Amino acid sequence: MVASARALTPDIINELRNKFYENEKNVLAQNVCTKIDPLEACMSRKYIEEAQHVFNHKVELEGKPITNQKNSGRCWIFATLNVMRIPFMQQHNLEEFEFSQGYLFFWDKLERCNYFLHNMVKAARSGESVNGRLVSWLLHDPTCDGGQWDMIVNLINRHGLVPKKLFPESFSCESTMRMNSLLKSKLREFGKALRDMIASGASDADLESQIIEQMTVIYRIIGICLGIPSEKFTWEYYDKTKNYNCIGPITPVEFYEKYVKPSFNVDDKVCLVTDPRPTNPYGKLYTVDYLGNVVGGRSTIYNNQPVELLMNLCAESIKQNEPVWFGCEVGKRFAMKQGIQDLEAHDFKLVFGTDVQIGLTKADRLLYGDSMMTHAMAFTAVSTDANGKIKKFRVENSWGDERGEKGYHVLSADWFSEFVFEVVVDKKYVPDDVMAVFQQEPTVLPAWDPMGTLAQ
User: Which residues does the entry assign to the active site, renumbered to this chain (predicted)?
Assistant: First the structure.
């Protein structure tokens, strides 16, 4: 502690108390905020009156029903499948449809546990200490629910898709805490066993054999909690005209390749990010060390571009009738009940006498730990003014239909600039010079870099 540091003496505390009560507005604000949610107290009535869920460019069909990830961190899976089902529903003339989120969740849990165990071997082989920053980071949360776009591509290409009715939700899909707690304990136990083997001079073959034994236990826990997907399925359904249809028996990979891929090919989509930190220039490619979910799968790659480009590509995609997956920090300047994401939705200065959440620049919020991507959703509409300037987006969330306009939000362009970090669009909309960035050798960011945060 610096020599000039001052303790909070009784005199200083009295001075703070007197300054508080000198302003009667503080007392009024205190009376309100001690009885209701402070964010609700800060809601701007005037803004709510002006916010409208109406847009002049909208995809022709939106998915039904509104999905609900419940008490899980699977937003990245839900957002992907919400985007994918729209062209699939159009292609197959469906009134309502959901792909199974639980199916991909099963495979992600299994693959990610295997990925973690191999990361523990990799770190130990590299001489990383168990109490060093890297291994501590890996052990902190060995199998969280969250993910990134490249991770979902790994799962779909390797394991395919199934309709939700054929692999429905389980208790541990909708409330993941208990299962995750079991898995984390076993993974840490198994991680220690692998490090002990390496310290004793075990060969790579011995380690792989041990991981297979460990994965037998992991598979048992996951299978008991989530159920185990069938190798093949038969899907019977009625279309909008009440005609009977039947697909199968078919494997999930064959289902994706034959019936989904023609309308939505995950390999045709590219993920662009916007990281304004001076250390990470635009027009460069980045990756995060030890970040992934599938051994042998594609790496998580970030093509860093200005936020204006991301916004324009989202608008262009929607105008061409294609929804957009995006990742953002969802908790800031967000009126959840009303479904409004706008910098003006709350008047913090009126209530607290100071503004909050945007006092730092976007770059500084990343540097000082006040901002990162936390959630993934889908854009389905956009509004522009008479000059073509983007004003707002319509957002399909995965929190059920009780928030916003039956599950949909309105998100302003200003909010996009501050809190959106990545978008996924078809590569046909992306300029050639931006696509060329994907050919670069990526700069590797450390495992704990905020751009490696997973959407949940």
Answer: 75, 375, 397
Catalytic residues: 75, 375, 397
* Contact (Cβ atoms closer than 8 angstroms) between residue 183 and residue 143: yes
Place of tokens 């490090």: 195
User: What is d(CA 50, CA 185) in angstroms, rounded to the nearest whole number?
Assistant: 50
CA distance 47 to 345: 6
Which one-letter DSSP state was computed for residue 68?
B
In CATH terms, is domain 57-452 a member of 3.90.70.10? yes
pTM of structure: 0.97
Kindly report, residue by residue over 257-279, the tens digit of the pLDDT: 999 999 999 999 999 999 999 99
Q: What angle, rounded to 10 degrees, do the helices at 75-92 and 149-159 form?
A: 50
Could you give the C-alpha distances from 336 to 80, 165, 403, in angstroms and in order? Answer: 21, 30, 6
Cβ-contact 403, 336 below 8 angstroms: yes
Alpha carbon separation from 418 to 191, 341, 352 (Å, rounded): 39, 11, 22
Residue 371 confidence class, pLDDT cut points 50, 70, 90 = very high
Q: 185 — phi, psi (to 5°)?
A: -65, -45
pLDDT in tens, 202-222: 999 999 999 999 999 999 999
Q: Enumerate the domain spans of the chain.
A: 57-452
Q: Is the peptide bond before 65 cis (omega within 30 degrees of 0)?
A: yes
Residue 327 three-state SS? strand
Q: Is 200 exposed, middle or buried (CB count within 10 Å of its CB: 0-12, 13-18, 19+)?
A: exposed
